Each structure stands twice: as structure tokens, then as C-alpha cells.
């Protein structure tokens, strides 16, 4: 009889993100990559959908159905919904196996508080984890980007997720200096909504704002400006309306969050010891995370800092891949664990 369980390692690495949750299994790679959304019936409290299906429902449901994002600014905002979501994703990751209490490594923002850490640990234990180890997201991102984090060399990482931006200078498997900012991809969506409302008196939803950010948004002028038609509710007339929006306008909308991110990078550079700063001048700054995919963000940071800036190819998965690499390297995991 074929053993259906032999492939499974009873260990998981999890990137529990504001925008997306990813799970990595050794020898299998990334087995879960789903939006961090949960839909529930407010009358019966029954879960209706989780992940991709719940995100599709966002903004499209009757009043008895509520679609929530249980994480905000990189940490748990709704404990009950987070545990339901995590339980669903872990079951999805360990299907066809008899192992029900896996050991997990979870990447968390560098600015997380002890109370917020406890919430993450409690959520993982409540859904069946046997042991929970936490590592910082910028460290996981650097490992996933295959930077030489164990060497006495300065490596600067800017990890822009959905809820947080983590900026860190890493050397000898430790963070020499760093800052965490609760401004990232979600805040970009919010300012786009605000801008369109103010300029066109048109109310658009989060999914539309995210579409604008991804298709025509940029941090630095494009070679050829782009345009997109958006639909929403005309606030003056109370009826559906439309506007044609340019990439220049979206860039104008993004000024505030981008300024905050650039200033955090500057502050981290100012706090960096001179000897390590020399390495960063030579090797540059590495961008990762979903927010790093904003067009020309690398050019913007390069212009503001005068340093070389690069974006890794697997920006969306670097954190969970790094957590997975740490999971199978006990010595490294022990060194970088924060809880």
C-alpha cells in the first residue's frame, strides 16, 4: 500500500501577513498562498469563506455576511477570526497526513510588542501547533533573499508588506539597527481612495484602489504615463460614476506614505555604525515584500539616498522562504528566534 503520509514533515513556516498568509513545508515548498480574509455570517457566526473566496466576496455581500481582514498593521486585530483562518490554512497545508500538531516558525514584524507576540503564539497553539518559534520579518526576508546574514557584512533590507514596513541592517545573524513603520501597502490603498474621493467626488473600494496601485501606480515618473478608468459611487448624485485617472495622479496620492517609508530608510541609515555603512554603500539596499513591487520604487529610494537599490525577484515570498530555511537550520533558528 502506498504511504500517503511519508512526504510530510511535521514542521511549518508561516508568514502570517496582513494582506496574505503563506505556509512553507520542508521538501515541498510553499503549499499555501492565500489572502488573509475571512467571511462570516453575523447571525449564526458561521464561517462562510476563507482566503481567495472570501476576498472575492469583499464589498459584494449582503448585510448578514461580514468579510473581515483579521490582521491589521502586521498584527492580530481579531483573535477569533485569525484562529479560524489559521486553522483552515494549516489543515490545507497538512492534508493527507496523520500529523496534527506541527512545530511552526512564524515571521512577525520587528516592531511587534510582547502582547502582540503572545496573541500570535496563542493563536498558533490554539489551532494545534505543538511548538511556536517567532522570527522577525526583515531577518526572514534577508534569508529568503539569500543575503549573507551570517557573515560580518552589513546587509540592508526594506521589507514592505501590507501592514508594515520593516527596515533593518543585518550582520552576523543579528539586526544592528532597524525601524518598523505601520505604513505599507494597505496605507497606499487608503490614500488612493481618499484622493479619488476628494478630486472626483467618487467613492471607490479597496479592491479598486489596489488595482490602481498595481496597474498604474508608481513612486517615480514613468517613461510613458498611463491611464485607467475607475468606477464607483458618485457622492453628489448617489449613483454609479466613472473617472479616468492617470499614473501621475496616483503618484501624487502616494506622496505621504512614500515619504514616510523613505524617511524611515534615511533614519535607519543615520543610525547605522560607520563600518557597516561602508558595506551598504558597496552592496546597496534590497527591497522585498509586496509593496516593493510598486513601479520605480527602487529609483525613488536610490534618488533619495544616493545608494544602489535592488528588488529581489521573489519579493512576495521571500519572508516565508526565509522562515522555511531557518526552520531546517536549527542553529540559525536558535540564533534569530525572538520568541
Automatic annotation (TrEMBL):
It comes from the Bacteria. Its main location: cytoplasm. GO terms for cellular component: cytoplasm. ATP binds at residues 18-20, 162-164, 210-213, 290-293. GO terms for molecular function: ATP binding. The keyword DNA repair does not apply. It holds the Pfam family MreB_Mbl. Keywords: ATP-binding, Cell shape, Cytoplasm, Nucleotide-binding. It is found in: Cytoplasm. The keyword Cytoplasm applies. One of its GO terms (biological process) is regulation of cell shape. Belongs to the FtsA/MreB family. Forms polymers. Forms membrane-associated dynamic filaments that are essential for cell shape determination. Acts by regulating cell wall synthesis and cell elongation, and thus cell shape. A feedback loop between cell geometry and MreB localization may maintain elongated cell shape by targeting cell wall growth to regions of negative cell wall curvature. This is Cell shape-determining protein MreB. It comes from candidate division KSB3 bacterium.
